[in-house]
Amino acid sequence: MGLPHYQHYINGKWCPPSNNDFIESINPYTAKPWCLIPRGNANDMNQAIEAAHLAFTQGEWPKMNATARGALLRKLGDIVSQHAEHLAQIEVTDNGKLIAEMSAQLHYLPQWLYYYAGLADKIEGQVLPIDKADMFNFTLYEPLGVIGAITPWNSPLLLMIWKLAPALAAGNTFVLKPSEFTSASAFEFAKLVEQAGFPPGVFNVVSGTGQEVGDTLTAHPLVAKIAFTGGTQTGKHIYQQAATHLKKVSLELGGKSPNIVFKEAHLENAAKGVISGIFAATGQTCIAGSRLLVEKSIHDEFVEKVVAIAKTAKMGNPLSYETQVGPVTTKPQYEKILSYLDIAKAEGAKCVLGGSKATRPECGDGWFIEPTIFTSVNNNMRIAQEEVFGPVLSVISFEDEEEAVYLANNVIYGLAAGLWTQNMQRALNLSKRLQAGTVWVNTYRTLSFMSPFGGYKQSGIGRESGQEAIYQYLQPKCVWISTATEVPNPFIMRLK
């Protein structure tokens, strides 16, 4: 019996890839293929974009008012809620993240749909008190058009919904290119969109590689905006392509986030926060607290606490609720992380935990790496400056607050930062000084549909979630209506 296989979802129909080619999707726990996804090409992507453009300009969707769009999103949220456990199982099989996390994530995911369903008909323009007595002036917010979304392999549906919910609430149509490593859940989600009753062409999914379908999406003239989550280098490439047609972009990119621990912190809680920041999700998260900055006077004591907790981590089958550290999602990423372990050792970092692939019996043939902690790290080392995207923690000590801020900000990234202190004056002051889009104080890796998320510096452009996100998918229009009985001098711009 062959592997289950998926088809593209284009214009409300399931379509085989035009070249009849498929990609094996590998279960990272077994290192074996478990399903087939379509290997799309430019022709497939062009069809999806044209369908989305047609749906935006004609038919039922553009005639639908904002309240009706909200009702559809709310219905979709209910359907997703009913299928959350199934979607979680699919994602764990496809990307190896823990079922404990993915189940919680998928059950929480409908909140984005509900939030933007409610926001859809709350977007209001303004009547402006214009400085010309015979003019009536007001603003409107209108959708952009076709949104092209490109999502990564670490949290496929969550990071897709951050884009989809505000985009559809604003009245746009949507073409999704999921990661070729983890596309299965996107096709399962498309079944739910179909069940909810969205008009054909409003939501489309084409899978394949970046070169074969991603570049077509980012360069196509009918695509109004690209929303991307992924690595910084890929983000730069997308930004360059989007510039060809002056497309709007939102880019949520890499990070090298600091978790800063001061001596007055509640050290047991801080140690748990550090563990959460780097070993949860096997470190495969853009917000990973991969740099531990710890005050020198408590360095040894605190590192001992972190190592002690990390040593207890249970590795194994990500579909077991007992597992705490799962496999790396892709083989290329697995090999990349292993190479960084060698780089760190060559640079002089001291490995106090892990530092190699995992050979525990419970890890089987999967792509597992032991939770790893390096001390004696200099902030100029590659292990401290470059995104590893794995369960690898670099420990850097600091003397005082000024040095902590300097070290925290002295990277090209600025996605997130953690701060552990019982001194609230310090917490407030440093929250302003840290160059990061999110600052967590006495917590880490906490998210909400109500709170905007995005990066400073090379961690990205734009924001997702919260009210800010929907305006990333709208454009303002200004309308002037003259009430004058006579047109003044037509050869002069009207300034008075």
From TrEMBL:
| PROSITE patterns assigned to the protein according to its UniProt record, in alphabetical order | ALDEHYDE_DEHYDR_CYS (PS00070), ALDEHYDE_DEHYDR_GLU (PS00687)
Q: Which GO terms describe its molecular function?
A: betaine-aldehyde dehydrogenase (NAD+) activity
- CDD domains, per this entry? ALDH_DhaS
> Per the record's keyword annotation, is Metal-binding included, yes or no?
no
Q: Which keywords label this protein?
A: Oxidoreductase
The opening ranks of the lineage are: Bacteria, Pseudomonadati, Pseudomonadota, Gammaproteobacteria, Candidatus Berkiellales
The entry's protein name is Aldehyde dehydrogenase
Q: What class of enzyme is it?
A: oxidoreductase
